[in-house]
Amino acid sequence: MTPTRPVRLAADLARSLSLSEAAKKLLAPEHTPRQYFDALAAQPTLAEDAIRFLACALPKREAVGWALACVRSAVPKPSPEAAKAIAAAEAWVKEPSEVNRRACGAAGEGAGHGTAPGCLADAAFWSGGSLSAPHLPPAPPRDDLTASAVAAAVLLAAVIDPATAPAHRSRFVALGADIASGRK
Q1: Is 98 inside a domain boundary?
Q2: Where does the pLDDT of residue 6 fall: very low under 50, low under 70, confident under 90, or very high at 90 and above?
Q3: Residue 127 domain flag
């Protein structure tokens, strides 16, 4: 007999997120993560909430891959530092090794933690392992750090051009839905 995994509920994931009151009102106790995301995604005014929720609902590697696609589309001509952060995150998504994860830490710092490329690299670096230097005792990241950095990367990528931010958010939510469905 195969043991059954407990069903993840959207309420369990949403508990630690900063969601709008409108988003909180949509959350039903029985919602699966997909049902709740779809409810959020159906309302363009809740795109930021949908992005925050999906960032924590996706597995870490897929979440970073989603942020990577969003950042790449919003930053077509990155600075050298931003390009390094994007390339480091892409390498980690392709092969989530410790070497690639550590490279993301340095690249995120170089790009700046308050930038979409920097947050993207931070998301991969904070996915596991230790945050301390290799010669120091391990300091594991909190489990929610990757989701926080993914959400920040996607939201910052959306506002690179404030005039098109709503369209970018909607496009990024649709891309996230495709990734969550396994279509990308």
Answers
A1: yes
A2: low
A3: yes
Closest-CA residue to 170 (of 79, 26, 40): 40
* Domain ranges, residue 160: 60-180
CA distance 44 to 53: 14
What total number of domains does the chain contain? 1
CB 106 within 8 A of CB 100: no
Residue-wise pLDDT for 137-164, tens only, equals 999 999 999 999 999 999 999 999 999 9
Residues 10-19: tens digit of each pLDDT: 999 999 899 9
HEC readout, 138-162: CCCCCCCHHHHHHHHHHHHHHCCCH
Residue 155 lies in a domain: yes
- b/e string for 27-37 if b means 16 or more Cβ within 10 A? beeebebeebb
